[in-house]
Design a protein that fits this description.
about 725 residues; mainly alpha; A middle domain of Talin 1; 2 domains; three-stranded antiparallel beta sheet; two-stranded parallel ribbon; 25 helices; 15 strands; elongated; ion transport; phosphoprotein; CaH_exchang; NCX_ion-bd_dom_sf
Length: about 725
């Protein structure tokens, strides 16, 4: 949904030079094959100066040309949006695709405009109304909603005084059976009808002939009482049942997302049509109506389904996140009210708690992006460093606390598996999936290999530091086995041993407390220090690596003040509330995970590296896919790399620091499987990203390797202590 870039023309030499240079830059970048159809207003790789024609900078402004060709040029609608786009390219900042400000309506595409339009616009030619979505409406809602209207009409006719409402329900029964190609109109009642003159029949040439006569009592002394009694009968007998039915249809259609037009239809019917006087509501077929209509059009629907409603947003919040928000409330109420598991079991509560983490992760990401875009660099850096990993850390710390209270080492092993799964998934699965989906639309995608190289170097350093205590324990630890059996029945023969591990607590823990633990603390200090050095390198001394330039040659229509979806205070409140709910959901997940770990035949390794690791990262995966579809693979790769770097350089040191103040079973010694999987993934990722370009085949290789590692974890035996 990118607006077209028109040629900016104006009087004077300045605007003309900028326009000619913009077109020249667009032609150069078209040759490079990266976002050629969008001009030089979006992300594009650095173009060597030698490729530009010398006459460009001789005839026109040299600064304008260089700012477009040499730098990556971004154009935003306002300063807040420009700040958000700039933050996307900063190391350590959360990458966010959605807008944090309201986009100008004139810049939206026709598809998006249709999503937000009210169902009261009559088109010149609506086309055929016999579509799959309309038939689906008939099967799901139309037939029983129409039948309900017929029953209510019968009841209102029985009351006699509610007969006008009965006639209205009879007309609406036919409308809601198949509302497509029909219109509901609100008309003004002529004064002759208000005075109860004889021959009360509405007619209008613009309505295509005489209107349907409404049954109404004759003028007599008690007409006012008659009207009040009919309205009372309608509000007591007819309207509640129909409003409840429309509410059910509205909620169901909204949850299905593609049927949101049906939800709008039902909401408008219950809130407006059914509350009007019967003589003011007219139902007509569009083929019997001439345009323009006289009177207000209340409802006019052509399609029951629209597949583009996945783009729909409410106050800047994607419709999927809106629909999943009630799931959080259900999870919290069910988890804390039904503690003895009378209503549901532990498996259901664990699944609900895990699913609730997805919308909460979205709200946390949206809040962080909003605060960072409206604040200076220092505030944005603090917010991203503080809350950027809050989703994962909340679950990890809650699990470690529960494992320490129960004396169960299995929780610590699950946390290690989740850490490894996040690392492997963000290095292989996230960029691989983005390459595959983006490669379907774009034959070859290019990305900034220099910026990816910074993240890769930090990733190598972090993986080496995290697994240094593990390698140290393998060299100097004592191998201890749970049980051994003599295979040959010979005391000097071969023994088959199970549950073997390197014991670090031999000789009263001398090896661990004197050597391994100081190494862990040293690594936990060095890794955050290296992370700060990386921030200083990319954000201060070597900002030219990203070549980001916010263009000041705004397109026509972009001179709008920023209308933010969430103000800083509102975003802060949402951030704190989402963090609090995240803590509660993590507590419920860890509370009900033990039966799954003990009774499941699946390895605890597999549960940790898949469900617990990747579910909280689903909003980030969606952002990466959206960037890849727009041929901006650099941000897709940075999303995975930044999460992996934060796991090693921030999350693990924080967990080590937490164990100092609250002793747990967590030690920075991983199993061999975690070590080999992580190191192999990092090496493969760096080999793939060396040349700065990729296609869907390379993405398929990364995804397949990830699934192979998942198969290894699936068939691996459970870790010791579980």
């Amino acid at each position: 949904d990118v607006p077209k870039v028109p040629d900016s023309r104006g009087d004077g030499d300045g605007p003309r030079r900028g326009s000619l240079c913009d077109r020249h830059c667009a032609a150069i970048n078209n040759v490079q094959g990266d976002l050629g159809d969008l001009g030089c207003h979006l992300h594009r790789p650095r173009v060597p100066t030698a490729l530009s024609t010398p006459s460009c900078c001789q005839q026109h402004s040299e600064e304008v040309c260089e700012s477009c060709v040499v730098k990556t040029t971004l154009t935003a609608e306002n300063a807040v949006e420009a700040n958000k786009l700039s933050n996307n390219y900063k190391f350590g900042f959360k990458k966010w695709k959605s807008h944090v400000t309201a986009r100008p309506w004139e810049d939206r595409s026709e598809i998006v405009k249709e999503l937000y339009s009210d169902l009261n616009v009559i088109r010149g030619s609506g086309g055929s109304t016999l579509t799959c979505g309309n038939v689906l409406y008939l099967l799901l809602f139309g037939w029983w909603l129409s039948l309900l209207y017929v029953l209510v009409a019968a009841v209102m006719f029985v009351t006699v005084m509610g007969a006008p409402y009965g006639q209205l329900c009879w007309d609406l029964a036919g409308y809601f059976l198949w509302p497509f190609g029909k219109v509901i109109q609100k008309v003004e009642v002529p004064k002759s009808h208000q005075a109860c003159e004889a021959g009360a029949g509405e007619s209008s040439a613009l309505l295509g002939g005489p209107t349907a006569l409404r049954w109404r009592p004759r003028c007599w002394v008690g007409a006012g009482y008659w009207h009040r009694a009919g309205t009372a009968a309608w509000l007591c007998l007819g309207y509640p049942a129909l409003a409840l039915a429309h509410g059910l249809v509205c909620v169901t259609a909204w949850l299905l997302i593609v049927l949101i037009p049906v939800a709008k239809l039902s909401a408008r019917a219950a809130s407006r049509v059914l509350l009007l006087a019967p003589e003011r509501v007219l139902v007509r077929r569009l083929r019997m109506t001439e345009v323009p209509l006289e009177g207000e059009v209340i409802l006019c629907c052509y399609r029951a389904a629209n597949p583009y409603y996945y783009k729909y947003a409410v106050d800047g919040i994607n419709v999927f996140a809106v629909n999943l928000l009630p799931l959080v409330l259900v999870t919290l109420v069910l988890g804390y009210v039904d503690s003895p598991n009378h209503l549901t079991g532990s498996a259901v509560k664990f699944s609900l708690a895990l699913l609730s983490i997805m919308p909460l992760s979205y709200y946390i990401g949206m809040a962080i992006a909003s605060i960072s875009a409206q604040s200076n660099f220092a505030v944005g850096a603090v917010v991203n460093a503080t809350f950027g990993s809050i989703t994962e850390l909340t679950f990890y710390i809650t699990a470690l606390i529960k494992g320490s209270r129960e004396g169960n080492r299995c929780y610590a092993e699950v946390v290690k598996s989740a850490l490894t799964g996040t690392l492997v998934g963000c290095v292989l699965f996230v960029p691989g999936l983005c390459m595959v989906i983006g490669g379907i639309r774009h034959q070859e995608q290019r990305f900034n290999s220099r910026s990816a190289g910074v993240s890769s170097a930090l990733l190598f350093l972090s993986v080496g530091g995290v697994f240094a205590p593990t390698l140290f324990s393998k060299v100097y630890g004592k191998l201890v086995c749970g049980e051994c059996h003599n295979v040959t029945q010979n005391p000097l023969g071969h023994y088959l041993c199970h549950n073997c591990h390197f014991d670090l607590m031999d000789n009263n823990g001398t090896l661990y407390y004197s050597h391994v633990q100081p190494l862990v603390y040293t690594v936990s200090i060095l890794l955050p220090a290296a992370y700060l050095v990386g921030l200083f390198f990319t954000l201060k001394t070597h900002t030219h690596i990203y070549d980001i330039h916010i263009s000041d040659c705004h397109m026509p229509g972009h001179h709008h003040s920023a209308v933010v979806h969430w103000s800083r205070w509102r975003a802060l409140v949402i951030l704190l509330l989402s963090t609090l709910c995240m803590s509660a959901c993590a507590d419920l997940a860890t509370e009900h995970i033990n039966p799954i770990l003990t009774n499941s035949t699946i390895s605890q390794y597999f549960i940790g590296v898949t469900v617990l690791a990747m579910v909280p990262e689903l909003p980030e995966i969606v952002n990466g896919i959206q960037f890849a579809l727009q041929n901006n693979l650099s941000l897709s790769i940075e999303i995975g790399n930044c999460i992996a770097v934060q796991v090693c350089m921030l999350q693990i040191p924080i967990l080590v620091l937490f164990t100092i103040f609250y002793p747990t079973n967590f030690t920075l010694v991983f199993s061999d499987l975690h070590v080999y999987a992580s190191m192999f993934s990092v090496v493969l990722m760096n080999y793939t990203f060396m040349d700065g370009k990729c296609d869907y085949f390379q993405g398929t290789v990364l995804v397949m390797v990830y699934f192979i590692l998942l198969a290894v974890y699936f068939f691996a035996p459970s870790p010791s202590g579980c």
